[in-house]
Amino acid sequence: MKIRDGFMNTLYITGAGVSAASGIPTFRGEDGFWTIGSKNYTPMEMASRAMYENNPSEFLAWYYHRFATYRNHGPNEVHHWLSDKNLITQNIDGLDGKAGNKNYIAIHGRLDQMTLFHHQGDDVTPQTTPWDNVDESSLHASLLELFKIENQQPMLNQSLKPYVLLFDEYYTELYRISEAQSRMLAADKMVFMGTSFSVNITQMALDIARNYAIPIEIVDPEPTHVLHSNVSYKKMTALEYIQQQG
Hints:
Elements: E1 10-14, H1 43-46, H2 49-54, H3 56-66, H4 77-81, E2 86-89, H5 95-98, E3 105-106, E4 109-116, E5 127-128, H6 139-146, E6 160-164, H7 177-186, E7 189-193, H8 200-211, E8 216-219, E9 231-234, H9 238-245
Parallel strand pairs: 1-2, 1-7, 2-3, 7-8, 8-9
Antiparallel strand pairs: 4-5, 4-6
């Protein structure tokens, strides 16, 4: 293991399990975001660019109910512990930023931000989403107005889209993918916390860890077992883990 000037460069990669203590449902539990869809569509269909393009009213209402209603939740002890750590999070809740981490990578986007609706790979700048302007008494119309969508048809470079990576989209520089890969390659150890290894970013990190013999730790009450020659399983919650770390 490489130690640089007495400092070990540990990269933390977090998932929904870290935010569960803040009252935000995980993705694959009984009340999870990906187990609850709408009356007509599955969660995988809802969380797609195709749904945003073809049925923006349904997409935005689903996104609002499943994510934006948690926008005022606060960080928990784990987020505060991670506030000075080298961190990539899969979570879009922004709680790591609220806890004070100034340079974490939100690899799947951020709930509090939106962008111009653009071709993937175009250079766009995230802007704050004024969720508090949403009128829940006329939710669908209010959301379409907020995201500048007319006639149920998002317009490229005119309408707005939540800053979130959807199932049928791919990682671009908007999500700081090159920086994320650089952090993985520079790591002396990777610690995966509260993640089920079911998304591409965790597979990418795991491949790098294998190829460069980077040791990993997996922190989860029911840890996913992975193929790696140097893995340590911590069968505990993220809170228990940080308490153990001191």
